[in-house]
From TrEMBL:
Gene3D superfamilies linked: 2.60.40.3650, Neutral Protease Domain 2
Pfam family, one: Peptidase_M61
The name this protein goes by in its record: Peptidase M61
Membrane-traversing stretches: none
Domain Peptidase M61 catalytic, first and last residues per copy: 301-405
Peptidase M61 N-terminal domain sequence ranges: 28-203
Length: 511
């Protein structure tokens, strides 16, 4: 009883003692967006309390969703560590993305400068911008924390507290919950480095709209240096898609909050340039074009694909993704699932939900078939996935052949189950088994799916995903009453399908 009274006294009378104990485990960062110097941001932090003689500090080489080295450490300079008296402590730069900090237990503060990763979306620069960070002092900051914040290899799982000093008129749009300490200061917390990096933020004068889809709060945040009231238009376009996705996913979305962050840069050139990166609870889209007229339509497709990533890899992923190594990542062999099945859902959902015509769906299949022909389709998808960093020339085939593999898998499941099970059902089953925070063994997934479905599905994976056999598109489409002309690439529905074909087509695409 006395122990309980003492604990109550400590917590109520001296709550700051409890807070101080908790914060010792945090990385405590300060990012100054208000006082830029030479287009560089000053970043400083106190490391978690530790007894380490030295520690390896890391800024990511690359991030989930991209499969080529980005080397975000290249933008970091003036890396300095000091003790509580302001005395410098020895640091060594090991390579582009890592530093050795000596006498780490006595380090009070580490600070460094971070340069802008990109100034503009230029057509002649094909390097991806969406994983990077951009600073425009008086107008906008597009922030991916993998560019600004790092971690010690010896302290990977610690939580983060980020204090941001910013223009008093700026608002933080993000999937994370930013709290305003005062007009110039925001505070945000992340449970670990992965969550922080997985949550980009758009800082600018707000043009935001909230919509609610079921229990899910969706933020649409837009920036353009001329147009300040465009998020409502985009939100109206996105809302219809999200409602149909909710129905497609069984009536419930597996996230409570989601954010669409959209940066639009005006241009005098014809056409447009687009770049984007999905995250577990948000999507960052970057556009450059001469006209905004195309934007709602372009975002429809992007929003649909990126939002479907809430299924995979958010809820369904392997240990390689769960324990992602930002310096030397090990690739999963299941990009057919993460990107191929996501893209398949993107083209399947509109026809299943009666948003498009049968002819439009046939055109979607034809586009994927034509796109697939641009790549080497004799390569194993699992091997390509494991070696995706080395095979960038083939990576986009996961969106082409991968989507067609999804269609064939869906048809095969519908055939074996007499219409009762398809890929929609399979993904729901996988989400229940491997929900958020859980993961599957990379080598066991095909066997696990087979246990959930039919023995014939193991043969499907062995032949067409692990193996190099051509996907049986003509044979499988015929089962659902479609003709695929391999010479022309045309897909057309049979004028007089038989009863089995009609039943399978109905179960597959609701037509």
């Amino acid at each position: 009883m006395n122990t309980l009274i003492k604990l109550f006294f400590v917590m109520i009378i001296f709550p700051n003692i409890m807070i101080a104990q908790k914060t010792k485990k945090n990385y405590e960062y300060h990012i100054d967006l208000l006082h830029l110097s030479n287009d560089e941001v000053r970043v400083s932090f106190s490391p978690p309390k530790n007894n380490l003689k030295q520690g390896k500090f890391i800024i990511p080489k690359l991030v989930p969703g991209f499969y080529q080295a980005m080397n975000f450490g290249q933008y970091v300079s003036d890396f300095t560590a000091t003790d509580k008296n302001g005395k410098k402590i020895l640091t060594e730069r090991l390579d582009k993305n890592s530093w050795m900090v000596h006498d780490l237990k006595n380090v009070k503060k580490i600070s460094y400068q971070v340069a802008d990763g990109w100034d503009s979306l230029e057509k002649n620069n094909q390097e991806a911008k969406s994983p990077g960070t951009m600073f425009k002092k008086d107008s906008v900051f597009v922030i991916n924390y993998n560019s600004l914040v790092g971690y010690f290899e010896e302290m990977k799982g610690n939580p983060y507290q980020i204090k941001v000093t910013k223009n008093k008129g700026f608002y933080a749009s993000s999937a994370l919950n930013y709290q305003q300490k005062n007009k110039n200061t925001d505070i945000v917390w992340a449970k670990d480095y992965r969550q922080l990096v997985d949550s980009p933020v758009l800082y600018c004068v707000p043009d935001t709209t909230w919509i609610k889809i079921g229990h899910t709060e969706v933020l649409v945040s837009f920036y353009n240096n001329k147009e300040r009231h465009y998020s409502k238009i985009i939100a109206r376009e996105i809302e219809n898609i999200l409602k149909n996705q909710q129905a497609y996913l069984g009536g419930t979305l597996p996230v409570n909050k989601y954010a669409f962050l959209i940066y639009y840069e005006s241009s005098n050139e014809n056409g447009y340039l687009g770049d984007g990166l999905e995250h577990s609870h948000s999507t960052l889209c970057l556009y450059r074009a001469g006209s905004m007229k195309f934007l709602p339509h372009a975002l429809n497709r992007v929003a649909s694909h990126e939002f479907f990533h809430i299924v995979t890899p958010l809820n369904i992923h392997s240990g390689e993704i769960q324990h992602y190594d930002f310096l030397n990542p090990v690739m999963s062999k299941h990009l057919w699932l993460y990107e191929g099945m996501t893209e398949y859902a993107t083209i399947h959902m509109p026809i299943k939900q009666k948003m498009i015509s049968l002819e439009d769906f046939e055109k979607s299949l034809e586009e994927k078939i034509q796109g697939m022909k641009e790549f080497d389709n004799k390569l194993s998808f699992t091997e390509m996935s494991k070696n995706s960093m080395e095979r960038q020339d083939q990576y986009m085939n996961f969106y082409q052949k991968g989507a067609l593999l999804g269609a064939c898998l869906d048809i095969r499941l519908r055939e074996l189950s007499h219409g009762k099970m398809g890929t929609q059902d399979l993904m729901q089953m996988l989400m229940k088994k491997y929900g958020e925070g859980k993961y599957f063994n990379d080598d066991h997934l095909f066997d696990e799916i087979t246990k959930m479905t039919y023995p014939e599905i193991r043969t499907f994976f062995r032949d067409f995903v692990e193996g190099t056999q051509p996907i049986p598109l003509k044979e499988y489409l015929e089962k659902a009453g479609f003709n695929y002309d391999e010479a022309t690439g045309k897909v057309t529905s049979f004028p007089n399908p038989d009863s089995k074909q009609i039943a399978l087509r109905k179960a597959w695409i609701n037509q």
